[in-house]
TrEMBL record:
It comes from Fontibacillus phaseoli. Signal peptide: none annotated. This is Motility associated factor glycosyltransferase family protein. Residues 499-526 form a coiled coil. Residues 207-379 form the 6-hydroxymethylpterin diphosphokinase MptE-like domain. InterPro entries: Maf_N, MptE-like. Residues 43-112 form the Glycosyltransferase Maf N-terminal domain. The keyword NAD does not apply. Keywords: Coiled coil.
Length: 623
């Protein structure tokens, strides 16, 4: 076998995704010439934007790579996680691996052509078999930096540093800057998500289970799929930002011309001026969301919800109810296994606006307008008039603690804060995803934050042309058939059977978790005695118990749903546990990291059992 064949064979076994990159027909936006350095090494002369660059030194590629790694030595000393952007023809990666003491190495090569030349010319197995390499990605996809930022932030433990050879900073300046931004944004968002999930773990579980009767008694929005496809229909997603007050009057005029969707609390502002949307979307699982709907006439507007919505909202709603679900909703997927395809799934977003956008796109609408989506605090204002579920004192407090600034559509700056930045970035990501699906998002929010990827236009200029469209009846209750009694009965039986099974399995699992807790305590004692035999025995016992627990559906659905934050933290330490050769080190890692997770599971088990019992009673009473 030649070098290329050996390399492809190795990739097929260990990095199959990279084989696809090698076989990709996509070409980089530049040309190159193969040259030889004075030391006899392959080099590439790259032509880009009418400029020539050498990938490596024309004299000695390896020596240059070594000098570069030495120059960044102080930056990567004591760093736990290193991201290398740009491997060259392997030299930069090889030299970095030979020097760094980092626990994990993440590798990204932007150029498919450079990657192919590396495979064609040099053996890769020794380099890529280094166990510290946790991720290797290739290509210039627009979304790759974001995807990698997510993957890296989920795996890394401890300090982080991105490094890139100078030639890559010149060849790919935008990619380098993207990583700096995306890593920061992703880490902020993950921290926010973790804090939210930790705070609401039991509430969200209650919602998903307590809302089961409303899923059985009502229809999903499946019948709306592509309803307005190829009909040049426009949608307006209405937010509750301060700018809404400037454009709200247009909605009553446009109600027969555009599909109008209220995103969460904006229904308060709309009702305040006697304007009603075609439906309101809500998915917030916190009790605060209940206050939104307590302050509106719930008999006037249909509600499209996700199962995570705070359950008391559905109890009090007097108009039609319809639903979809999030792709990440493993509970609904599990309990409605046979009918999963009948419930439309959407990407989980940090803001209900994102859900509204996806529902409009699901209905086949390609032009979506955003109104009142300020995603910041223009003129130090929090909400549009009429939005009253949060007191003015608390609103003022939020604004007073908003010490960051974001560009607005007028060229100025608006106050913002970390949590609001998370919402903005989340919407910007969704806008890019929608663009790939042929959906155009136009932002009409006056004075609001710039939403990257959207076009800004004033509703003052848009409305006259929209008013010329033919009138259409957008009432969704006319488009969605009610469930038959037979379908309801079938779903009641299926879900009841599943709940009964889950309740029984949870009680069995609780006993196994208690047993595992006892064995972990015995392991701690064995470690304190430095007993090799007892430590080994306990580790074998723990491994057997843990495998048994993690192969159970209840763990993979209900514990995973509610304790995802703690499970993810433990999973970050698994590679270190697996690779630990010293039996005592392995034991200490197990007691430290698995011990914390098992304690959380033990504390959670009684709550899960109680919630399941209440959910079963609600199902009997409400169906």
């Amino acid at each position: 076998m030649n070098v290329l064949e050996l390399n492809k064979k190795y990739l097929s076994r260990h990095y199959p995704a990279l084989i696809r990159a090698f076989e990709s027909t996509l070409e980089d936006e530049y040309t190159y010439t193969r040259e030889i350095t004075r030391s006899g090494e392959l080099n590439l002369r790259i032509e880009i934007n009418q400029n020539s660059y050498y990938l490596h030194s024309r004299y000695n590629a390896r020596h240059e790579a070594k000098k570069w790694v030495e120059s960044i030595g102080s930056e990567i000393d004591d760093i736990d996680n290193v991201l290398l952007v740009g491997i060259g023809l392997g030299y930069y990666l090889e030299e970095l691996l030979s020097v760094t003491k980092a626990r994990y190495i993440f590798v990204y090569e932007p150029s498919v052509l450079v990657f192919k030349e590396w495979l064609n010319e040099r053996a890769i197995e020794k380099t890529l078999s280094d166990p510290r390499i946790r991720l290797f990605a290739v290509g210039e996809s627009e979304f790759l930096p974001l995807q990698l930022a997510n993957d890296i932030s989920e795996q890394m433990i401890g300090t982080f540093r991105k490094v890139s050879p100078p030639i890559y900073e010149r060849l790919f300046p935008e990619i380098s800057e993207q990583f700096n931004t995306k890593m920061k944004d992703t880490i902020i968002q993950q921290i926010s998500n973790m804090q939210t999930r930790e705070f609401n773990q039991e509430t969200w579980l209650e919602n998903s289970l307590f809302n089961l009767p409303y899923l059985i008694n009502n229809s999903s929005i499946l019948a709306l799929k592509d309803k307005w496809k190829d009909q040049n229909i426009k949608a307006i997603i209405v937010g509750s930002g301060p700018s809404l007050s400037q454009d709200l009057h247009y909605l009553s005029e446009l109600k027969e011309k555009c599909l109008i969707i209220a995103a969460g609390s904006s229904i308060q502002a709309m009702e305040h001026l006697g304007v009603y949307p075609h439906f309101v979307v809500s998915m917030d699982g916190t009790k605060a969301n209940h206050h939104v709907f307590k302050n509106v006439d719930v008999s006037r507007v249909p509600l499209v919800f996700c199962p995570s919505i705070y359950y008391e909202i559905l109890e009090g709603h007097k108009n039609s109810l319809y639903y979809g679900k999030f792709q990440s909703d493993i509970i609904t997927k599990y309990l409605y296994e046979s009918q999963e395809n009948e419930i439309p799934s959407f990407i989980s977003t940090a803001t209900v606006t994102g859900t509204g956008i996806q529902i409009a796109a699901f209905m086949g609408i390609k032009d979506i307008y955003l109104m009142g989506q300020d995603l910041s605090y223009p003129n130090n204002q929090f909400y549009a008039p009429g939005v009253v579920h949060i007191s003015e004192e608390i609103q003022d407090l939020h604004i007073a603690h908003s010490e960051k600034w974001v560009k607005n559509v007028d060229g100025g700056l608006n106050r913002t804060k970390g949590s609001m930045e998370v919402l903005l970035k989340d919407i910007e990501i969704l806008v890019k995803i929608m663009e790939l699906q042929g959906v155009k998002i136009i932002n009409t929010s006056k004075g609001g934050a710039v939403i990257e990827g959207t076009e800004w236009a004033s509703m003052d200029k848009i409305a006259p042309s929209l008013l010329e469209y033919p009138s259409i009846d957008f009432e969704i209750s006319k488009q969605i058939p009610a469930k038959t009694p037979e379908t309801k009965d079938k779903q009641v039986k299926e879900v009841s059977t599943k709940l009964k099974k889950v309740s029984g399995e949870t009680k069995k699992l609780e006993l196994k978790i208690k047993k595992l807790t006892e064995v972990i305590k015995k392991l701690e004692y064995a470690l304190s005695e430095s007993s090799f035999n007892k430590t080994t025995e306990r580790l074998v016992e723990i491994d057997k118990l843990w495998k048994n627990i993690t192969q159970n559906d209840v763990f993979n659905v209900f514990y995973q749903y509610s304790l995802a934050h703690y499970i993810n933290i433990y999973m970050r330490h698994v590679p270190e546990i697996v690779e630990a050769e010293d039996i005592f080190k392995k034991g200490r890692l197990i007691t430290t990291h698995l011990g914390v997770l098992v304690k959380r599971m033990r504390d959670f088990s009684p709550s899960l059992i109680s919630i399941l019992e209440k959910a079963t009673e609600r199902l009997k009473a409400l169906t």
